[in-house]
Design the sequence.
């Protein structure tokens, strides 16, 4: 099963986003994942990861992290198989360099890197809802009106999440 390397936000920064996500789940009549992690920004997904080797590397990454907040300025849609509604992060050189460093530092401890999260292809975002039908897309977008864009979310931690089912493997506070 896959593992995600994620940035987690201070709860006060993303409280409105968590509420919107819950509304979208309720609207879509989807069974909520009881172990779902809070809104986050995924930096990488790997099919396999040597977690013991990655813990020290995550600590090094957390110490080197010098971005106070991520700025979000618009909604977006991924449209491959079904609609995925997301909040798009402003892409800064610092964020792109940190993303590339994550991939570089973890490359020897991971396998099966998902292409859409690799440097040069990655779209930094917070997923709001997945598997949205074409019929429910307008109402789903309307539910996001409560998000006051643009806004900034303060980074609290970097972590590794196992998903399906979601479970935090390791996380470290950003210094």
Sequence:
């Amino acid at each position: 099963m896959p593992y995600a390397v994620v940035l987690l936000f201070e709860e006060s920064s993303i409280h409105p986003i968590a509420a919107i996500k819950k509304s979208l789940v309720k609207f879509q009549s989807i069974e909520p994942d009881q172990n779902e992690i809070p809104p986050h920004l995924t930096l990488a997904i790997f099919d396999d990861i040597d977690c013991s080797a990655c813990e020290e590397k995550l600590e090094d990454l957390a110490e080197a992290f010098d971005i106070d907040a991520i700025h979000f300025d618009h909604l977006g849609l991924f449209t491959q198989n079904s609609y995925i509604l997301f909040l798009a992060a402003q892409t800064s050189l610092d964020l792109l360099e940190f993303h590339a460093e994550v991939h570089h530092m973890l490359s020897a401890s991971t396998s099966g890197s998902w292409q859409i999260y690799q440097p040069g292809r990655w779209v930094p975002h917070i997923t709001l809802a997945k598997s949205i039908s074409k019929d429910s897309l307008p109402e789903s977008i309307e539910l996001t009106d409560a998000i006051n864009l643009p806004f900034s979310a303060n980074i609290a931690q970097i972590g590794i999440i196992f998903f399906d089912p979601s479970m935090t493997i390791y996380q470290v506070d950003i210094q």
